[in-house]
Every structure is written in structure tokens, then in C-alpha cells.
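Q: Give me the 3D complex with zinc ion.
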Amino acid sequence: MTKNREILFMDPVCTHNIWGGERLWEEFHYLVPDRHSGECWGISAAYGRENIVRNGTFRGMKLSDLWQKHRELFGQTGQDRFPLLTKIIDAKEKLSIQVHPDDAYAEAHENGSPGKTECWYVLDCPEDARLIVGHNARTRAELESMIREARWGELIREVPVRKGDFIQIDPGTVHAITAGMLILETQQNSDITYRVYDYDRLSDGKPRELHIGKSLDVIRVPAKTVEDSIFSTQGLPVNRLNQLYAGQYYRIFKAQVQGEMTFAQAYPFLSVSVCEGKGYIDGIPLVKGEHFILPAGYGAVRLEGEMLLIASGV
Ligand code: ZN
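A: Here is the predicted complex, encoded as C-alpha cells.
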């Protein structure tokens, strides 16, 4: 295999969101469309929100074009599009409660789109924060009556969450990010979302559309247990690529660099986000907020500094 030793740095795309906070520009220094920018699409080949390569041989190319024209950079994935999407989300207000379909349902009902499996790493949150993950209905009949009768308080399952927690959101899982959460999200490259409940809020004077029928089709009953959905990643060894999760669509890693760390990039590709701190990768300076891809065959990686990295691969 030829050695791809060039790191692909991404130019992130930030979006205005009515619920967005100010941390993407205040803390991460991203170029944002306005103060309330809730999402940074850090490693994205999604249509309309493609990242552009910032450096080197492929400078100026969209990640989606790079995927089409230089597939050798991404190894053997068996995928027809860049499979992952990495975002940083800064929610100043709570987001609507959602659920995503799996591949089979999306294929049949959403023009052949993939489904959406996603996961969150909590970068920061208020003390005593709670997220919505799962629901309390024991049977499908109970789920239907709770939704039809708007018994949201009974239905929705809030779970306590702390900085450094990891949350896996399988398709069919009712979920929502709450106010004050700063998270790194890794997901399938898909945007199919069904809105279950929006707290009866109005936008431009009217409630946003809900997708109750499709939500009822896809919500899993009973929900996965809290223990199976969320866990703390505190206390993992430093200077190691610790695998947090491995499933059908992605594997997620956490590395806390303190001083010096080396590892081998042996995956088809590795998407990496610098979530805290600063340092170097193979002599190239890195700062908080940078996102890059280590291509196939990259091999030995040397990191220096004080950094929190979250990485994903397939
Ligand atoms: Zn979601």
C-alpha cells in the first residue's frame, strides 16, 4: 500500500440555529454566520455542508469530491459515500425531541437514504444536567396512548449526565439535547429526523411540524436501559487511543494527551477532533476546534501537548 502521510485538515461549516449558543465563536473561534450558531459541521461530506480541505495537495477540494476521486485515502470501507459526520453542538436552549429511523425504514420511506445512528460525547454541561434518552412506555399501546394524549412528562425519560459521558443513540431511540449542553456528535452521514415533541413552542407564530406517524413506526419499545445507553469515560488511561464504542457504523475513540503519545493509524481512515487544549501532530501545530482526517495507511502518529481528542473510524 502506498503511504498517505498527508493529514487532511477540514474547514468546518457552522450554521445559524435559533437555539444556538455563542461558544462556537467565543471558545472555538470558528467563522460563524452569526452569534447564535449551534452547529459546527467539523468533518462533513453532507450535501450543501461539505467541508473543504484546508491544506496540502488536496487544498480547496470538497470532502465529498475527495471521496469520489481519491478513494485510496479512505481505505476499504465498502461504502458509496463518506460514511460519517462529526459535529460540535452548542445548545443554549433545549432542542426538540426526536427519533431517527434505521437503514431499512429510511430506505423504504425516505428515498433510499441511510438511517441515522448517532452518539454524543459530552464536552461540557451544567451541573445536574439531564438529557433525554429513551422513554418510559412499557408496551407499544402505552407508547401510542402517551403520545396521542400528550402525556409527555410520563413518556420522556430524562437521565443525569456529566462532562465526559458517552451516549449511544440507536435508531428508534427518543432523544434530545438540553439547554447548556456542549457535545461532540458522531453520526451516520444522514439527516433523517422525525420530531416527536417540541415542548409546544412556536416558531414564527406557529408550532413546528411533528412527525408522529413515522415516529410511532420507528420508536423502539421498550427503550434500551439507561445503563446500556450512557456511560462515563472518566479515568481512562492517558496517552492512549481508548476505544469507547464499536458498532455496525462506527467506532469511537478518546485520547487524553498529556506530554507525548504515539499510536498507529491502522483503520481505513480516522476522523479526529481536537476538543480541548493544544499541541502537535507529527510536528504540525494543533489547537482546540480543529478537525482532520488521518488517511488510510498513515501509520505511526506522534502527538505532543495537552489535548483531548475524540476520533472516529469505521
Ligand atoms: Zn438525533
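A quick observation: The pocket of zinc ion is lined by residues 98, 100, 118, 169, 175 (CB under 6 Å).
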